């Protein structure tokens, strides 16, 4: 399993989420997943909504273009970003590493 991969024009992210963090950030590799820290608590879907908002800003796409495919209720998630306009540098480095 790759932490990040491209599927046609879409980006597939295998994520490990750390809720209730001091700030929103892409932390880096955590096992075979990409760790993302978010400030929202894991209560009533707030963490998922916050994660969607954070990723939509990071990739410069509408919130509707971020889809949680697996792990709606857990820390381990698979997320699809539809046609990202921008790839953050930390993720671009991972994508370059997988293509070789």
UniProtKB/TrEMBL annotation:
<comment type="similarity">
    <text>Belongs to the UPF0235 family.</text>
</comment>
<dbReference type="InterPro" id="IPR003746">
    <property type="entry name" value="DUF167"/>
</dbReference>
<dbReference type="InterPro" id="IPR036591">
    <property type="entry name" value="YggU-like_sf"/>
</dbReference>
<protein>
    <recommendedName>
        <fullName>UPF0235 protein FM038_006380</fullName>
    </recommendedName>
</protein>
<dbReference type="Pfam" id="PF02594">
    <property type="entry name" value="DUF167"/>
</dbReference>
């Amino acid at each position: 399993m790759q932490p990040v991969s491209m599927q046609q024009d879409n980006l597939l992210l295998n994520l490990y989420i750390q809720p209730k963090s001091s700030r929103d950030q892409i932390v880096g590799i955590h096992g075979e997943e990409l760790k993302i820290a978010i400030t929202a608590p894991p209560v009533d879907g707030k963490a998922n909504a916050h994660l969607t908002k954070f990723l939509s800003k990071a990739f410069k796409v509408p919130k509707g273009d971020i889809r949680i495919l697996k792990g709606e209720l857990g820390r381990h998630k698979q997320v699809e970003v539809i046609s990202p306009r921008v790839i953050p540098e930390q993720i671009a480095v991972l994508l370059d590493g997988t293509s070789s």
